[in-house]
Amino acid sequence: MDLADGLIDHPYDVYRRLRDTAPVHRITGPDGTPAWLVTRYEDARAALADPRLSLDKRHATAGSYKGFSLPPALDANLLNMDAPDHTRIRRLVSRAFTPRRVRQLHEPIRRTADQLLDALGPHGTTDLIASYAAPLPITVICDLLGVPESHRLDFRIWTDTLVAPDPARPEAARGAVVAMLGFFTRLLAAKRAEPADDLLSDLIAVRDEDGDRLGEDELMSLAFLILFAGYENTVQLIGNAALALLRHPDQLAVLREDPTRLPAAVEELVRYEGPALLAIRRFPVEDVTIAGVTVPAGETVLVSLSAANRDPARFPDPDRLDLSRDAAGHLALGHGVHFCLGAPLARAETEIALTALLERFPELALDDGELEWRPSLRGRGLLALPVRY
């Protein structure tokens, strides 16, 4: 089957049919090359943690789907690495995303959220993506990394171009990559010349107990990944969560009556409408059997996070948003050694963003107009979310 068929507007219907039909499917990937798609929860969870399924594109055979094509200076990131390089780099950067460090960011995140809501005024209409869900995480992640405010709008434009590239304008995606490479080259040079109290300066200086440090391409690729993923995933988390609540007024009422339920509610919201339809592609280093299907070494394996998170064998009545559900174990942010490094920060931003929004606008509602989703087969996010308040 062609993976593109119906997935933009109706992904859960498509994945339900696939999941009900078979646990593993031979498909045509987003770029027209063949791949294998895993749809059921237990198989997906096992695949995400299977060390035989490599993220390193050097294990891919010719003609396999490989995902983004980036220059070497941006491609040496955690999404293309296995142990031991993945272990080393993740260890060097993980201190920036510990629960303690994330708790220290709660106050500035809430301050940014309040400033954005102040700018909207007490009543009116707005596109909640453009006015709130997008500027909040870009501000947070740029402050964390030490990106000057003057460059943040450019970065949003480049990222949006790469998240959902226009097939009719391939030069736009290439231009965005070139622009981002130049941006990070200049930014890292500036941080080396004048270190500051930010994550990029720390990453330039960091060494582990053995004296190891990040190579030049590793450093630039890591900065790109943190900024790109820290923005893209959280925009979609906040926007999708807000939409789900506005479409389910009974569940929204639960949170309004008891805001202390928000941390647990975020897990169910992420399970129900997460930011990624598919995990990053993987390549078997040897022939691998998944749910009785043998996938040859080097071919592409795609794991459907959204199909797994709505598998009734794991989550009863999975197409219903239920904030009282125990959604622990969902796969929206990955599983295993490649579990999302920035998950604590993304969760905190989503919780704080929703708390501030619901406190400020007790009559928040969807406005008229069709909702449009990003034309992406990997990510799940809205182009705009029109609301009135």
Structure description:
This protein is mainly alpha-helical. It has one domain (3-388): Cytochrome P450 (Cytochrome p450, Orthogonal Bundle). 49% of the residues lie in helices and 8% in strands. The chain has 15 helices and ten strands. Strands 1-2-8 form a three-stranded mixed β-sheet, covered by helices on one side. The protein has a three-stranded antiparallel β-sheet with strand order 4-10-9. The radius of gyration is 21 Å and the shape is globular. The model has no long low-confidence stretch (mean pLDDT 91).
Keywords:
15 helices, three-stranded antiparallel beta sheet, Cytochrome p450, 389 residues, 49% helix, 8% strand, globular, single chain
Question: What order do the helices and strands come in, and which of them pair?
Answer:
Elements: H1 11-21, E1 24-28, E2 34-38, H2 41-48, E3 53-54, H3 72-75, H4 85-93, H5 99-120, E4 125-127, H6 128-133, H7 135-145, H8 152-163, H9 170-193, H10 199-205, H11 216-247, H12 249-257, H13 262-272, E5 283-284, E6 288-290, E7 293-295, E8 301-303, H14 305-309, H15 343-360, E9 365-366, E10 386-388
Parallel strand pairs: 2-8
Antiparallel strand pairs: 1-2, 3-5, 4-10, 6-7, 9-10
Helix pairs in contact: 5-7, 5-15, 7-11, 8-9, 11-13, 11-15, 13-15
Give a quick precis of the structure.
The chain is built from 15 helices and ten strands. The longest helix is centred in the middle third of the chain and has 32 residues, at 216-247.
